[in-house]
Amino acid sequence: MTTLQKICIGYFVALMGAASLNYIPGLTDENGLAFGIFALDIFDDSLHVASAIWALVSAFVSHRASKFFLIVFGALYLGDGVFGFFTGYGYLDLGIFTNGSDGLSFTFLRLAANVPHLALGGFALFAAWKLDRA
Length: 134
Known about the structure:
A hairpin with a 3-residue loop joins strand 1 and strand 2. 67% of the residues lie in helices and 3% in strands. It has one domain (3-130). The protein has helices at 3-20, 42-61, 63-87, 95-98, 108-130, and strands at 33-34, 38-39. It is mainly α. Helix 3 runs antiparallel to helix 5.
């Protein structure tokens, strides 16, 4: 198993962890906010589970499939995180289509909601381009 395939397995674990946040007692507050910061809905959960399954399948299919996953996933998630800073909502969970723009903001809550996508997307692209050891 190559480095990129192992990284895809790591993404599977991380994304399934993100999908489970709403279902672990004590991680959401009375308003349904995970860690009191952001709300995850069925669109978010579906996105995380679908991405996790894609990562896992890629890891077991081939090195090439893993690299493809990391590039496409990385670009999509990095873009979603950047877009979240400008609008307050991402495009992957259709938030920009169901909510109006809140404008550019670098508040703690906006950072906490978007940094995970920036980190996941950025590392995926870095791994695909710099850690590629077929």
